[in-house]
Amino acid sequence: MNQPTQPSSSYLDRLESETEARRSIARTEASPFAGAPGQLAEALEQRVDALAPELAALAAELHADPETAYQEHRSAARIAGLLERHGIQVHAGVHGVPTALRAEVGSGGPAIAVLAEYDALPEVGHACGHNVIAAAGTGAFLALAETLRADPHAFPGRVVLLGTPAEEGYSGKEVLARAGAFDGIDAAIMVHPYGYDLADQVWLGRRLLTVTFTGVAAHASAQPFMGRNALDAATLTYQGIGLLRQQLPPVDRVHAVIADGGTRPSIIPERAVMKLYARSKYPETLRELSRRLEDVARGAALMTGTGVELAWDEHPPSLPVRTNQALTGRWVAAQRRRGRSPLPGGVVSETIAASTDFGNVSYRIPGIHPLIGIADADVALHTREFAAAAGSPAAGRGAVDAAAGLALTALDYLCDPALRDAVAQDFADAGGPVDVPAYFD
Ligand SMILES: [Zn+2]
Ligand SMILES: [Zn+2]
Fold this sequence. Notes:
four-stranded antiparallel beta sheet; binds zinc ion; 2 domains; alpha/beta; hydrolase; Alpha-Beta Plaits
């Protein structure tokens, strides 16, 4: 009996069959906008297809040499190398982040950014498939750049490729944003690989909390009454969170570990440290959840007579993703050209939700973060199975289809003023820009 029991797959099986049932009747609405002129779009798509071998090779090279957050030096160099071979000037180490990249083509306004992630995870490598994101974003930018090289008046405005490090755990895009990376940019688009083609999906906001309890050490047998037990405070906090869960909104998430809980059983622990993640579907509910967690920790400190220090956001918080529906419509139209039918939001359960630092971008300027299928539907992100999928031929095909989707969406945005108006209106209707760094103060 020294093995854990095996979790049942019953719930996941049900989720999957419910997803299938919804998928069979789901329709993503067609975009009412014209987008770019047909011939221009066709030529752009052909340029993406011509780049396909290089994009698949880039995805494979990044996959074979994974680097974790803020260490993506070789990955950034590979992306820059491909761009430079195509005559693009690349700025490395921009916005104060050594592994960030920036390249830009066009002039005047409007401006749209295509984002590329390339960080991997410890142990499991590219189990989130950011190698596919990098190839897609780079391919989209290159195709647009080559279109402008052939005809500088092909379309108005600017296209910016932003290489965004450290998505996993560090909210690298928020660091770039605070350094001005999105200043003067009107919209931002990116894509993420997944087990389905999804036009829209829920991404939860996320904050990090470190709670440090300070007690009074004492001999646990001789003079326990002279102690104040910091581990008790951590234990009560852990239990308090457990009880709080029943009263939380359905997709709120709290995960906690006790990172330090004392040294020896014979000493009343004078220090305990907890690390928590708090996640919620909306910015305001994440703010409310934050306050409740603070109350739980303070209550535990009061019960145990310990001191408590609450340190939020060791790395910047992530807001949920706010999806721009007008841009999504053009992404869907582009994916249909590729023979894909991205499913609307709500087909895949929102309970299968993670977080992304793109959320912070999407509350500053209009943006989309659709998903492209490269794996079987039951393969979850951050698993060895997904890492294998991210290195498969399907990942190469996904990268090319995603590159076409991003390139065409960007072209539509720059060419169609009515679409741009709708994008801006949708963003305003959703609440307009938010002061992200000040949001949780
Ligand atoms: Zn991830
Ligand atoms: Zn990811």
